[in-house]
Amino acid sequence: YEKFSEHIGFLPLVIISPSDRDLITEGSETRRKFVDGVISQGDPNYLQTLIKYNRVLGQRNSLLKYFALNNTYDQDTLDIYNQQLQDFGSLIHDKRTEFLESFLPIFLSRYEVIVNGEETVSLVYLSQLQDQDLLSLLTENIQKDRLTQYTNFGIHKDDLVFEINGHPIKKFGSQGQQKSYLIALKLAQFDLIKMQKKVKPILLLDDIFDKLDDERVAQIITLVDDENFGQLFISDTHAERTEEIVKKVKQTYKIFGL
Hints:
57% helix; mainly alpha; three-stranded antiparallel beta sheet; single chain; 258 residues; elongated; three-stranded parallel beta sheet; 10 helices
């Protein structure tokens, strides 16, 4: 491959790990990366569009800093960047919207199975482009951008809102509910990639004992122990503990020590 980006999606992979909690606790960039990662595995054109958008965004931000540093202004150059951000940004927004429409029912179904329908969850896509096109936003808010020397509007400000029973799961969800939410997200990711690429992704459970109790890990193993899943890899620092769990799996397994 000439570019690293060409590797993405070649070998479909879904990872469930302790760091998944960052999707709830960290900022919007983490959640955008999750969405972009899932879409990119099935659509290489989306990834290239995203790369182009971020490149132009960086150039526009540099131009804004140049304006402030040199006490100058060039509307013509700014218009070029604005139009490029509009073109790339609208494509990304449309693709993210389409993704959520496909992903949401799969996620809700997975969560319902995990918790036996005891709670109601939602996944909401927030974007400044939902009410207004990006070109208008950039034009109307140029003074704010010049003041902050930063592009304040665009798909780089998108976010996902994770809710449980109508409230943010970050504040109102228990640890168990948050873990179930994240597991449902990742299993839905698996289902969607499988549906789009017509192949079963590799599923990696990376050091999940670190944040999940044995009962919940066993629950995950049970969920993925059927013909709908392909290869499953589990990493753990305690071989005996892992073997005790995987003994419950109906399929054959092998343990490798590193």
